[in-house]
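This part of the workshop introduces the protein records we will be handling. An example says more than a description, so a record of this kind follows.
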Amino acid sequence: MKKYYDVLRRCSLFEGISDSDLMPMMGCVGGTVKKFDKRENIFSEGEEAKKVGIMLSGSAQIVRVDYYGNRTIMENVSPSELCGESFACGGADEIPVDIVATESSEVLLMDSARITRSCSNACGFHQQMIFNLMKIMAVKNLRFHQKIEITSKRTTREKLMTYLMIEAKKKRSDTFDIPYDRQELADYLEVDRSGLSAEISKLRREGVLLSEKNRFTLLDRRKI
């Protein structure tokens, strides 16, 4: 477990918790490391919501597929970030989405009940971890509302530019990478891929942005 300390130190769940408490904590919350291949489900829709995961390496996407098979990417999960906590700790009986590894990944899986309830040992770090979990879920709620802000826009152009401007602000730069290829970006924005590609080409011609694969540069925002 020590080889993952650098990742765990960056995890918001362990903010304010010393390195010396990390190993005892793993026993306290039933932490185990599991490897996943690319496109393998870390959590599957309909699965009992009992576990919380921390990405140790690789990456994953939270994906919702509707009755007709339409795919929507809800969020990207990077190393040190949590997945599944909203369902496991929010009282959901089943996980309503798939959480899929987008490359070979390692995930620390923990028992949610052992996170949210103080153990019999009355560990000092446990209360800190519960407080951290509440903050994480509040931040995730804000990000969920941000996605609603994006997808509620009426046109593909408005959805795309709203997303790109949010990413530019987050990265504090007009040039930035996004974690999605074209199809994934279309799934995230909930638009047609061909329409999205056409809109990106149009914005390039108009001098609004530059793009190459998943790298974007915002140019003259007055033309948006």
